[in-house]
Amino acid sequence: MRIQVRRTGGFAGIERHAEVDTADRPDAPEWHALAERAVAQGRDTPPPGVPDGFGYEITVDGRTVYAADPRLTEEQRGLISRVLKEGA
């Protein structure tokens, strides 16, 4: 599974992008479950955000959904955090 996160907005407006490929990871089932829940709760179009808040584009195996602060679900927040931390 290929998971990509693109974060835009924020006070400085700096875009950040990261990607994780779970193919050879021993914790792949955990990633898959989290990614499936996060995508299921996403929107097909970018939601309205708040001033200086972040907007997110989450792509899992070619399916893209959108989310924005402060209305992230726990699963979206967890997936975004992990991908931005561990991804390259």
TrEMBL record:
The lineage of its organism: Bacteria, Bacillati, Actinomycetota, Actinomycetes, Kitasatosporales. This is Metalloprotease. It comes from Streptomyces ziwulingensis. It comes from the Bacteria. It holds the Pfam family Emfourin.
